[in-house]
Amino acid sequence: MTFTQSLAAAAQKNDSLLCVGLDPDPAKFPAHLKGRADAIFEFCAAIVDATADLACAFKPQIAYFAARRAEDQLEALIAHIHEKHPNIPVILDAKRGDIGSTAEQYAVEAFERFRADAVTVNPYMGRDSVEPWLAWSDRGVILLCRTSNPGGSDLQFLDVGGEKLYERVARLAADEWNSNGQIGLVVGATFPAEIARVREIVGDMPLLVPGIGAQGGDIEATIAAGRTAAASGLLINSSRAILYAGQDENFATAARRVAEETRAAINHYR
Known about the structure:
Blueprint: H1 3-13, E1 18-22, H2 39-51, E2 57-60, H3 62-66, H4 71-84, E3 91-96, H5 100-113, E4 118-121, H6 127-134, E5 140-146, H7 153-156, E6 159-160, E7 163-164, H8 165-174, E8 183-187, H9 192-202, E9 207-209, H10 219-226, E10 234-238, H11 240-243, H12 251-269
Parallel strand pairs: 1-2, 1-10, 3-4, 4-5, 5-8, 8-9, 9-10
Antiparallel strand pairs: 6-7
Helix pairs in contact: 2-4, 2-12, 5-6, 8-9, 9-10
């Protein structure tokens, strides 16, 4: 299956629009994991196993692994997800952005080395920075569009020929660039009006929505703004609120409880 197909299948099977973000910070790990060489893998794998039937996708953030020289644990984690939970796609949150042969190498890193099903990409170098990713027609390419951070407005709200820059990105992504139907967009939950505007432009394209939970985004407003006519089309990401729900050896059970509550809240407003 392609990424888009596997995402739709996982969302239907698990009755879920919840994407569980994997941003492992060893300083926040339970005491029994601290100091272990494999702590990052063990922590994330336990979260994955506890929440896999509640999620439509997992999203490991590469910086949390690379900063601690734990890329091997990221490889092992994605392999674990594919083996134990093969129906749940993995989005590598890397936000890569470069052109030509360099972008090709980044694509090899994401799709061959780490075996991700999709990757986040920065499109602000234009079409030739996106095309190398699109060559992998079965994988997802999720472009930054309207991000959840306040400073995103510095550039994303600039007027470009009568429309805002984020609107231009959405239009290009939905029309000229999406020949394989594999593109999605990142649109932050902290800006529901912009989610609605992006949905108006792109139709049923998948939207990855960070910003609920610790960042304060409103689930009801996000759903109202971004759902498709079929009450789908969203990957609503929660990371810290789920990962660090518990501080002891039962951390995975606590993570499952919060993931269950979050999925229920999302489904309530669908």
